[in-house]
Amino acid sequence: MKQVAIIGAGAAGLMAAEMLSQAADVRVTVYDSMPSTGRKFLMAGKGGMNISHAENFEKFVTRYGTKQAQLEPFLTAFTPTDLRAFLSELGIETFVGTSGRIFPKEMKAAPLLRAWLHRLRSRGVQFAMRHRWLGWQNHDTQKLIFDTPTGEKIVTADVVILALGGASWAKLGSTGAWVDILQAEGVQVETLKPSNCGFDVEFGEFFKNRFAFQPLKNVSLKVGNFSQKGDLMLTENGVEGGLIYAASALLRDEIEKNGTATFYLDLFPDKTHGQLLQKLSKPRSKLSNAQFWRKQIGLEGVKAGLVREFLSAEFLNSPEKVTDMLKNLPLTAIAPRPIDEAISSAGGVNFSELSPDLMLKKLPNVFCAGEMLDWEAPTGGYLLTACLATGRAAGLVVLSH
Ligand SMILES: Cc1cc2nc3c(=O)[nH]c(=O)nc-3n(C[C@H](O)[C@H](O)[C@H](O)COP(=O)(O)OP(=O)(O)OC[C@H]3O[C@@H](n4cnc5c(N)ncnc54)[C@H](O)[C@@H]3O)c2cc1C
Questions:
Q1: Most buried by CB count within 10 Å: which residue of 101, 224, 284, 362?
Q2: Cα(141) to centroid(ligand 1), Å
Q3: Pocket test for ligand 1, best of 181, 383, 385 (most atoms within 8 A of CB)
Q4: C-alpha dihedral (117, 118, 122, 123), degrees to nearest 10
Q5: What topology is assigned to 2-194+345-400 in CATH?
Q6: Which atom of ligand 1 is nearest to the CA of 9?
Q7: How does pLDDT run across 46-70, given as a tens digit for each residue?
């Protein structure tokens, strides 16, 4: 009987187990350092569990940017439609939201995980929790060393699937400690960096005290060729939220290159410059700026605060200057928030180290899947879909080996 060790009980590892659990001549054990499975998967469920996206597949695969070519075969073999069918078979019905995002009807991960684990166990998959993988004994890829509550343990496996995740939210298990282990075996791993993350922006103390943790709704963000409408959140350090995450790879790379990254907000994307200017040019009689802005264009709260923060006081009475600021407010990101706070990680095992079926060329019979591979994607269900698709591929190839 072939012994397969899957290390990492997240989306990718469980999907690999799913594939292997269907074979009679394979014994599958899933190891994880945490006391229970799928901690990050459950955390994703807290945000509604956006598991995939229903947009046209040609568009869908472009979301993986420079790694589209590497991921496309796995995503073609396991499309968002296949993912929905898989969930349905588990008893989890899904729906497509107005934005095209796919969610389980219950908007939760726990029922899905429960049903899935139940099926895996009933098919004989074993789970060994509180097993922290430390590497290989004497570089022998069949001899895995685990730190367990009863001390160090050596486990022998014919095949190993690594599904160790990235390095965000370390308290959920994915610490990125595997990077050193693989690098010590000569595997090229791209530095893990924050992806879908917030950024530090220098705001004055008054502004921070007044507006931290307030949402900034219905704005448009521009940086380079990127332009998107959405919402963001002001934090005590800067900005975060969906719209910022969507631009985060661009901002992060720009900061890496030039030290800072300036992006531009249009605070009234549904009104033209001319429309705003016309209203702000009306006579204001004795109204204060705050009263006049509110009356003419509904400018108040955090949006008005941003104008006051970035436009010098001498120009606050100038309709032209205020309009310019409303349509093109520059914010300078000075650093991405630490990787631990990010939704996901960029970087990971370089695809050149992998065979087309995800085996490490330098370590025969060792496969990799999920977020630990060198790709990134925006939020929108793209992350989980690619983790599941690569986990599936690794499981299937081990079956056929
Ligand atoms: C707050 C939040 C919300 C999110 N929301 C969404 C969403 O709505 N949609 C979406 O698509 N994506 C979302 N994501 C991202 C998504 O959850 C991850 O990309 C995905 O779960 C990664 O799956 P994975 O199996 O590759 O890794 P993980 O789920 O991180 O699993 C890796 C596992 O390996 C284990 N491990 C690591 N090192 C070791 C070791 N040395 N020994 C033993 N075990 C080890 C860890 O304990 C962990 O269980 C969200 C992420 C966060 C943090």
A1: 101
A2: 24
A3: 383
A4: -30
A5: FAD/NAD(P)-binding domain (3.50.50)
A6: 49
A7: 988 999 999 999 999 999 999 999 9
